[in-house]
Amino acid sequence: MKYDLIVIGAGPAGMNAAIMAASYGANVAIIDENPEAGGKLLGQLHQESKGEWWNGRAVAGTLVEKVNQLEIDMFQGKEVWGIYPRWKVMVNSGEELQAELILIAAGAAEKAIPAPGWTLPGVMGIGAAQTLTNYHHVKPGQSVAIIGVDPLSLSVAQQLKMAGVNVVGIFLPPQSLFSKDKSNPTKMLTYLSSMSHAAPNKLLQAAGKVAQYSFIKKFGASIFPRFGIGIWGTRLFLRKAVLEISGYEQVESIKIAPIDKDGTPNQNRVKIIDVDCVCISGGLYPLIELAGAVGCESVYVEELGGHIPLHNPEMETTQPGIFVAGNITGIESAKVAMAQGELVGISVSSRLGLIEGDSAIHEAQKKVKETRKNAAITFQQHIDEGRKKSLRLWQKNRHHAKE
């Protein structure tokens, strides 16, 4: 089967790219390993800074409707087994798809933060808890502790409360090579300052703004209340860490202790809290394996969440005809992923001769930047610097390629 564009990944980036390209007349196919399209959208449900609600499942439903209206071929519940030049995509169910242009929108995966007891049944990634609650309508537990402070853990805490789960608190992880800054109250307070404008709690907003002044960052963590701050009815503890997860055959309790401004625990003040579930939020990293398998060069950009495929401003990689969009290019919001997908759809349409001139591409690039600028909460602290670094690395790579 021959197409103009094959999209791998039916998340917000992939579907938006397919919709945009198909709307200009391209013949498009989408492949996704999941039985239902939407990707991470399916578990998203949160209130944004102005009070409106973001319902990811509803957004996914709207995108699927557009995909169907444009008669885009969907290969749902199928896995890509191989991509061969120039370009042949092999699917595990036996289909062989061909196209000159491919978009890899593989998304991201959760990072683990190992802690004593983290392999017990009842311990899960925060994203798994989000999917269970919002998509499958199943409580991950009756009494839940969350380890890790970031936008995802704060959002899921609210979603769990809405589902009737008792969230005993959001705590820092224990100090380790894996937790790094996530176990340091001073650095986490600085991190919270990056989303102080959108924080749902006035005290957190104030604390975040205070943390923006370098000369009192250290003092700010010292005065953060040990009894925590209430966010959506859940306590956020920047001065307490989970030292251990305990249980015989499954999670039964957590061992917590107060910590100083640098994250060192006070072992003389350990407390046991009964829980039946622990959710660990260690952040996300881009899934670049498929891009690497097809020969796309990658670079490590810490500000973007890890290794990403090198790509130009039109989202094309070092392999001509292979594009990327969404969290594979760096960890950002679904709205940014959708804007990137739209950019790829337009870039592909231009390549196919379906649109003339570069004005549509430039407008789509501006939209990506504006969407990023207006994001209520960013998952990476220095995303703008990360994007600039990514572009510099692309330009350096192309310069060397020409020599």
Written account of the structure:
A hairpin with a 4-residue loop joins β19 (298-301) and β20 (306-309). This protein has 403 residues and is of the alpha/beta class. The strands form five sheets. Strands 10, 11, 12, 13, 14, 15, 16 and 17 form an eight-stranded mixed β-sheet that branches. Strands 1, 2, 5, 6, 7, 8 and 21 form a seven-stranded mixed β-sheet that branches. The chain has helices spanning 12-23, 56-69, 126-134, 151-162, 185-193, 202-211, 217-222, 289-293, 334-351, 359-373, 383-402; strands at 2-8, 28-32, 45-47, 53-55, 73-76, 80-84, 88-91, 96-104, 108-110, 123-125, 143-147, 166-172, 229-231, 234-246, 253-258, 271-274, 277-280, 284-286, 298-301, 306-309, 322-324. The chain is elongated. α1 packs parallel to α2 (56-69) and α9 (334-351) runs antiparallel to α10 (359-373). The chain starts with a strand and ends with a helix.
